[in-house]
Design goal:
This protein is mainly beta. About 5% of the residues lie in helices and about 50% in strands. The protein has helices spanning about 425-435, 440-460; strands at about 5-10, 15-20, 25-30, 35-40, 50-55, 60, 75, 80-85, 95-100, 105-125, 130-135, 140-150, 150-155, 160, 170-175, 180-190, 195-210, 215-220, 225-235, 240-245, 245, 255-260, 260-265, 275-285, 285-295, 305-310, 315-320, 330-340, 345-350, 360-365, 375-385, 385-390, 395-400, 415, 425. Mean pLDDT is about 85; it is low at about 1-15 and about 405-460. The structure holds 2-acetamido-2-deoxy-beta-D-glucopyranose (4 copies).
């Protein structure tokens, strides 16, 4: 395209000659408002030559017509170079310089290009920057970027870089976890000026979820208690409180309170009639979720403070228990747990010997008659006027002469005395037995209390 062979008759001899451009094809990369010069140098060979500049079929300049002006920003120099000042993004494109000679020579053309670099801009899809879907729905969000050179797009979610397999302007994923809710920001960067960002707030609608802080609360008459439910839901949930299945009537003594996501029921000056099962019920248009909280006068689970060997067959224990009413008695359970397979619990009823109101009650107990060189485990329960507490965590100990402690034993034992069997010894259960806020505790507890009452009956008759 840049050269063409022509046969010319000069002084009666046909000679062949090429005519071509001296200037090289160029792509001018520049910025907005700058001035660009595109060259167009042709060997004139003394032949009259006209040069015209074109862009997209529009003529910009004509050396044969110096008065031709399409755009005041465009000027053609004597050496045929084209100058464009104040370039704008829309000036990007191909520029054709066309040199024309008398008919036998025809014309030749050279193509140059201008690329006006400009900073990125970006807009989100959906344009409003917000998207709400139901849990499980497909999410589709995108960012449409402009800029020269074309920007690269990266994504951030809640201010954390998202690790994607490849660069993409569109994100598509199932909203299968509500933790995917949040702000998605795309960043378009092309190295020119500052990166541009656009954000989309994704909201996932889901049925309320409740995390009761404590599913069991110990209180004494006269106290102020607070029952908390941490509720998360979208749309925001409506919270109702129930007591023994009945909607609660609020009063100056029983009020509700909301702070952030925590909904609380506050009972001032607790009465014995307030003991029982409460429920916080959270509802939105996707469903209803409820969580039980028991308000009780029974003691918190006891915990061992100390366990020290006294002799080859005696051990000393000190435990503590929180109770707002005096402790009447304790149950001390112990059994061998290793090396042989299965042992029944031995249960001792120990009078508290104290009228102390509390809240902290401490007890020292000497367990005698143990076998030497043996591994044991023990737990303790406390009874006040409202009933038996949950069992403490299991305390393990060994009498003098026991071989070094090994971790290879497996302890999965079953309370065998009564029908509602409880597996004790698995770490998960021990944890749930010892935590006053585990939902599973509540399920285990009543059967355990029945079991203990039965045992007590058997041992006292
Ligand atoms: C170019 O000039 C225009 C008008 O004077 C101005 O608004 C714009 O910011 C300038 N652009 C750059 C990249 O300097
Ligand atoms: C064309 O002329 C201008 C001004 O006379 C000069 O600055 C420029 O270098 C020339 N272009 C070439 C390619 O010689
Ligand atoms: C939801 O996401 C959270 C946080 O990434 C994660 O801990 C949880 O296991 C996920 N839940 C499900 C059901 O995948
Ligand atoms: C346990 O034994 C120690 C040492 O014999 C004794 O000092 C302590 O009073 C005993 N404690 C109880 C509660 O019997």
């Amino acid at each position: 395209m840049s050269s063409r062979w022509h046969s010319v008759l000069v002084f009666g001899i046909w000679i062949s000659s090429s005519w071509s451009f001296n200037s090289a094809q160029t792509t001018a990369r520049t910025y907005q408002n700058k001035t660009v010069v595109l060259p167009c140098h042709v060997d004139s060979l003394g032949v009259p030559t006209t040069v015209r500049w074109w862009k997209d079929d529009r003529q910009l300049a004509d050396s044969g017509d110096p008065n031709f002006v399409l755009d005041p920003r465009v000027k053609m120099w004597d050496n045929m170079s084209l100058e464009i000042s104040q370039v704008q993004p829309e000036d990007s494109g191909e520029y054709v310089c066309q040199a024309t000679r008398p008919s036998s020579w025809g014309h030749v053309t050279q193509v140059h290009a201008i690329e006006v670099m400009y900073p990125p801009s970006v807009h989100s899809v959906p344009e409003a920057g917000e998207l709400e879907v139901n849990l499980g729905d497909e999410v589709e969000i995108a960012c449409i970027a402009k800029g020269v050179p074309y920007p690269s797009i990266s994504w951030r979610m809640k201010d954390e870089e998202m690790k994607l397999l490849d660069e993409r302007s569109k994100l598509r994923f199932p909203a299968d976890n509500r933790s995917l809710s949040g702000r998605y920001t795309c960043v378009a960067d092309n190295g020119v000026g500052d990166p541009a960002t656009a954000a989309i707030e994704l909201r996932i609608r889901y049925k309320p979820e409740i995390e009761p802080k404590k599913s069991w609360i110990h209180a004494a008459p006269g106290m102020r208690v607070q029952l908390d439910c941490r509720v998360s839901a979208w749309p925001e949930a409506l919270i109702d409180w129930y007591f023994e299945g009945e909607k609660i009537h609020f009063s100056s003594r029983i009020v509700k309170h909301t702070a952030d996501q925590v909904h609380s029921l506050i009972i001032r000056n607790v009465r014995a009639t307030d003991y029982g099962y409460y429920q916080c019920k959270a509802s939105n248009n996707l469903g209803v979720t409820e969580a039980p909280i028991e308000l009780s006068g029974i003691a918190n689970a006891a915990f061992f403070k100390e366990a020290n060997p006294m002799s080859r067959n005696a051990y000393n224990f000190i435990w503590e228990v929180d109770s707002y009413s005096p402790i009447i008695e304790y149950q001390f359970w112990f059994r061998k747990y290793w090396p042989s397979e299965r042992h029944d619990w031995h249960k001792l009823f120990i009078p508290s010997g104290s009228e102390a109101i509390g809240p902290l009650h401490s007890k020292c107990f000497n367990l005698t008659g143990l076998a030497p060189a043996t591994y044991y485990e023990a737990l303790v329960l406390a009874r006040n006027r409202y009933g038996w507490s949950k069992p403490s965590k299991v305390q393990r100990f060994s009498t003098e002469g026991a071989p070094p402690h090994k971790e290879h034993y497996k302890v999965v034992e079953v309370y065998s005395e009564s029908a509602p069997a409880v597996v004790l010894g698995s770490p998960a259960l021990q944890q749930s037995l010892s935590e006053s806020n585990g939902a599973s505790t509540r399920k285990i507890l009543p059967s355990l209390i029945i079991l203990i009452s039965t045992l007590r009956y058997l041992t006292t008759t």
